[in-house]
Amino acid sequence: MPVIEISGKPVHVNDEGFLTEYDEWDEDIARTLAQQIGIDMTDQHWKVVHFLRDDFKAQGETATTRRINTVGGIPVKEQFALFPKKPGRKMSYIAGLPKPHGCV
């Protein structure tokens, strides 16, 4: 896996730019990743990102938008409002996680 520098820190990424090492992520990196895709992080964005990271640690895979809705309590419409066009992909990218299964 390639190693690139984000926010002054070396991180491992895959060919699509998603982080591949869970422990290399931090909020500074998340802010930079969000800026790269045009997302201005708010408290609601952080709520989603922290849910995703906690859920990934417990489940071993990235939550889908449906799981974020049912388990995380964040409606799918809100996910689309916070992360327009492909929310699953954008949320997992910012959270430093792999794309959810079934995400293109």
From TrEMBL:
GO terms for cellular component: cytoplasm. One of its GO terms (biological process) is tRNA wobble position uridine thiolation. Transmembrane segments: none annotated. Keywords: Cytoplasm. The keyword Cytoplasm applies. The active site is at 103 (cysteine persulfide intermediate). Pfam families: DsrC. It is found in: Cytoplasm. It comes from the Bacteria. GO terms for molecular function: sulfur carrier activity. PANTHER family: SULFURTRANSFERASE TUSE. Belongs to the DsrC/TusE family. This is tRNA 2-thiouridine synthesizing protein E.
